[in-house]
Design a protein that fits this description.
- The chain has 367 residues and is of the alpha/beta class.
- It folds into 2 domains: 157 residues, 3-Layer(aba) Sandwich (Rossmann fold); 178 residues, 2-Layer Sandwich (Dihydrodipicolinate Reductase, domain 2), CATH 3.30.360.10.
- It has a 6-stranded parallel β-sheet with strand order 3-2-1-4-5-6, with helices on both faces. The protein has a 6-stranded mixed β-sheet with strand order 10-7-11-14-13-12. Strands 8-9 form a two-stranded antiparallel sheet.
- It is globular, with a radius of gyration of 20 Å.
- Bound molecules: NADP nicotinamide-adenine-dinucleotide phosphate.
Length: 367
């Protein structure tokens, strides 16, 4: 399966909010070792210790302190790219790495909606990795490819919707987000804007949730993904919380279901990462909270080492069928941890390294 060696990885956007989480989560990773870092010309040529204003508790890991920061262009001294660049920069940079033959695992929105690019949540749509065959067959392909993880709120929402879609079908979703400040990167939102306040606008966020959810829950048809035929409406807010996106959700189901069936669908939900025992996979992707005042960002964002989504307030709804609240760590499950789990799935299913199969390996192993 190719899981018995360490892959050398480069991190693009290594000094940013997501980049710092990459560096922390990869410190003792059994399958990845960080060998290259890249960021803007503000940081290039400096050591990571000089360039990075470390913002995570616990201090900067020593392994990275003296590494020198490079421009985000190939070549880089690594086999795989984890990217956390702003979308406009990612467009050129990630494409250049993929064209140069690197597998690129990206957090940015630049390529998420490209038809041949998997928009991956390993528990939800691992079969969508079959799209990589299309990228690998393109004329001039060097064996590089792009895999993306969804927007941070989309991941929280879609992980919670997935078991409902499988068991009952979903006709419509109305989602209202309460998004943490760290979701805007560093330095992000001005303190005078967010203190004692709620901002009812996050640029492009509502469109991303509406489009990405339908692609992720869509059907892989062998040569394309057919969007799930559900209505998705999103309203997004930035709130004065450091980490952890909350999503209040209402759903209209395709077939009637009892409240207990819904709760059971959330609680028993599991996927390929759990059955393969992937390193970053939480034992339970969804954790049901029955207390009337949960989930809460401060209490629940670190569930499953930040990789579980907590679901609570499950109840019948007077307008659509059911309502619930989902919460997840936006920079772990919503960004760096999501990309690392994608990388682990790529290894386990043979898409990375010499073991890569050119046809259908994932579709065969996960369906
Ligand atoms: P951030 O804190 O602003 O970090 C941006 C990173 O990109 C920094 O390392 C920065 O380097 C680098 N960068 C900026 N301009 C550059 C340029 N012109 N050339 C090369 N590198 C450049 O942002 P973030 O929150 O980490 O987000 C990074 C990406 O992940 C974005 O696409 C974002 O949408 C996505 N994302 C973020 C979250 C989240 O919760 N924060 C969740 C999901 C997805 P310097 O330090 O040198 O400026």
């Amino acid at each position: 399966m190719g899981a018995d060696r360490k892959y050398q990885v480069g991190i693009l956007g290594a000094t940013g909010m997501v980049g710092q989480w990459f560096i922390r989560l990869l410190e003792n990773h059994p399958q990845f070792t960080v060998t290259a870092l890249a960021a803007s010309d503000r940081s290039q040529g400096k050591t990571y210790g000089q360039a990075c204003a470390w913002r995570l508790p616990g201090g900067m890991p020593s392994y990275v302190r003296s590494m020198v920061i490079h421009p985000p262009h190939p070549p880089l001294d690594c086999e795989i790219i984890f990217s956390s660049l702003p979308a406009d920069i990612a467009k050129k940079s990630e494409a250049a790495f993929a064209e140069a033959g690197y597998p690129v695992i990206s957090n940015s929105s630049a390529f998420r909606m490209e038809p041949a690019v998997p928009l991956l949540i390993p528990e939800v749509n691992p079969d969508h990795l079959g799209l990589l065959d299309i990228q690998l067959r393109e004329p001039g392909s060097n064996g590089g490819f792009l895999v993306t993880n969804p927007n941070c709120s989309t991941i929280v929402l879609t992980l919670a919707l997935a078991p409902l879609q499988v068991k009952f079908g979903i006709e419509a979703v109305a989602a209202t987000t309460l998004q943490a400040i760290s979701g805007a990167g560093y330095p992000g939102v001005a303190s005078l804007d967010i203190t004692d306040n709620v901002l009812p606008f996050i640029e492009h966020e509502e469109e991303k949730i509406q489009q990405e959810t339908r692609k992720i829950l869509g059907l892989y048809r062998g040569d394309r993904v057919e969007d799930a035929p559900m209505l998705v409406s999103a309203q997004c807010h930035r709130v004065n919380v450091s980490d952890g996106h909350t999503v209040a959700v209402r759903v209209k189901l395709a077939r009637p279901a009892e409240l207990g069936e819904l709760r059971n669908a959330f609680e028993t939900f599991t996927g390929v990462p759990q059955s393969l025992g992937l390193f970053s996979a939480p034992s339970r992707p969804l954790i049901v909270r029955d207390e009337p005042d949960r989930p809460q960002p401060r209490l629940d964002r670190d569930a499953g080492r930040g990789m579980s989504v907590s679901v609570g307030r499950i109840a019948r709804d007077a307008v659509l069928d059911y309502r619930f609240v989902a919460l997840g760590h936006n920079v772990v499950r919503g960004a760096a941890g999501a990309a690392i789990l994608n990388g682990e799935l790529l290894i386990a299913t043979g898409w990375l390294g010499k073991e890569r199969k050119m046809k259908g390996s994932l579709a065969d192993s996960s369906r």
